[in-house]
Amino acid sequence: MSKKISDTEYLYLSAMLKAREANMLTRDKLERMLAAGSFNDAAKLLQESGWPDMSGLNAAGVDKALSERRREIFAELERSLPEKALLEIFRARYDYHNAKAIIKGEGIGVNADHILSGAGRVDSAKLEESFREDDFRYIPEKLGAAMAEAKGVLARTDNPQAADFVLDKAYFAEILSLADEVSAPFAAQYVKTLIDSANLRTCVRCFRMGKDPDFMRLALIEGGNVPMDFAVRGTVTADEFNELFGSTVFKEAAVLAGAALEGGPMTLFERECDNAVNRFLDTARRTGFGSEVVIGYLAAEENAITTVRMILTGLLSGIDPDRLKERLRDTYV
Fold it and tell me: Does the domain formed by 85-181 have CATH 1.20.1690?
């Protein structure tokens, strides 16, 4: 059994991360980037908030710069975190992303090297080698078992989506297990909120596409706060969404889910799912010190990197800034 960590052991780290909130990207700063009128002007505004200078880069250069920012953040926290499982919750996402890319590439006969991330716990080249040699002994046990199972599913079914479902379930199960290793319960509640968000999206997408209950069972994730037994009946109503999610941070998302079931826009619904997770993180922002502060900071940085990539690559591609503005999520500060 791991040693229980007191919140006071996070005092110094919390103070350091709290001090960075002043430079975090706000909704106003993001809208100023969109109003700048050009990619280079938006990149210069971003640099004023302590981000790397990305003016003059192409889309690949932007992605490389943002990946390096994430790598530096992870490396810094790895040296100072009292509980390493906290960082693994965030890094595991990239291990499973890489696993899905490698296996899907195998399924369609495409080399996936160009989309592999260096932010995971395991070097992507090591994952590829393990997959090719069918030897998963030297990577994290749960990840290895999931990759072996997904590889087998792909071989039997020739269905990359079925292999994805195996890895998705394993990913959430592993990060929930990692969250249970963290002394404060906030980490587990955060992961359960992520699961609720994933399941709510899955329900709406599947019902809009007319998927059957067997497909739903494969796609839905266990371990969230909201039971999803109703979803495998094959039918669902807007009232049921409201009843199940109405007392959670997904209250507004549930209303939009009901509308989406009737043909309403998915963009608004999915944006609200992300905003609901951000509302959950308000607790971290209001907390003075503890593991909550680290989770809030890491989640905020991940969201910021995603948003910056969307804005900068969108401007590079000539997408109307108003269209990009419609996709903005709520920010941490």
Answer: yes
